[in-house]
């Protein structure tokens, strides 16, 4: 049986391996945050999704949040019950359609997240300031492409 083509060692492959290492470190960092705050890793992913939606000016229903996290209805309900019980989120009527219920992240959760992730975010911003606009655009394009490729294979 033929084996799939595997790239040989190249500068591009070294970058891919470095990205993988960064991904592992970020996952471990997120797991430490979850552990220190009595959360499940999925709770952290949910809070990130809610903060991303808020930054984009979007509302997330429980169903859309669950779909984004790959959870079924029961799993989404359990997740939201945990997060709401801990004071990290609240379910409110949509500003766009009062018949819909959406999930909003509480400022308390944002503050807890910033206290832990803030130094890493600030260091990342500091590193990016060392690049010119063209280089930052290239970095962004690469990361968007990798994200899209990973999502397409999900």
Question: How is the secondary structure organized here?
Answer:
Layout (H helix, E strand, L loop, with lengths): L10 H26 L4 H15 L4 E2 H8 L3 H13 L3 E5 L7 E5 L1 H22 L4 H20 L2
Antiparallel strand pairs: 1-3, 2-3
Helix pairs in contact: 2-3, 3-4
Q: How would you characterize the largest beta sheet?
A: 3 strands, antiparallel
Name the overall outline: globular
Alpha carbon gyration radius: 19 Å
Q: Strands across the major sheet, in which order?
A: 1-3-2
Count of separate DSSP helical elements:
6
Low-confidence spans: none
Q: Quote the beta fraction.
A: 5-15%
Based on secondary structure, the structural category is: mainly alpha
* N-end to C-end Cα span: 26 Å
Q: Give the topology string: H per helix, E per strand.
A: HHEHHEEHH
Rounded mean pLDDT score: 93
Helical residue percent band: 55-70%
Number of strands: 3
């Amino acid at each position: 049986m033929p084996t799939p083509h595997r790239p040989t060692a190249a500068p591009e492959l070294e970058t891919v391996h470095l990205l993988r290492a960064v991904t592992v470190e970020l996952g471990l960092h997120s797991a430490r945050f979850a552990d220190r705050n009595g959360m499940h890793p999925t709770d952290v992913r949910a809070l990130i999704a809610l903060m991303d939606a808020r930054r984009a000016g979007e509302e997330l229903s429980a169903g859309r949040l669950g779909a984004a996290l790959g959870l079924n209805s029961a799993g989404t309900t359990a997740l939201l019950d945990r997060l709401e019980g801990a004071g990290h989120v609240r379910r409110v009527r949509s500003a766009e359609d009062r018949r819909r219920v959406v999930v909003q992240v509480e400022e308390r959760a944002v503050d807890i997240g910033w206290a832990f992730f803030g130094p890493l975010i600030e260091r990342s911003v500091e590193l990016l300031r060392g690049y010119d606009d063209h280089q930052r655009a290239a970095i962004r394009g690469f990361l968007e492409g990798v994200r899209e490729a990973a999502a397409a294979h999900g």
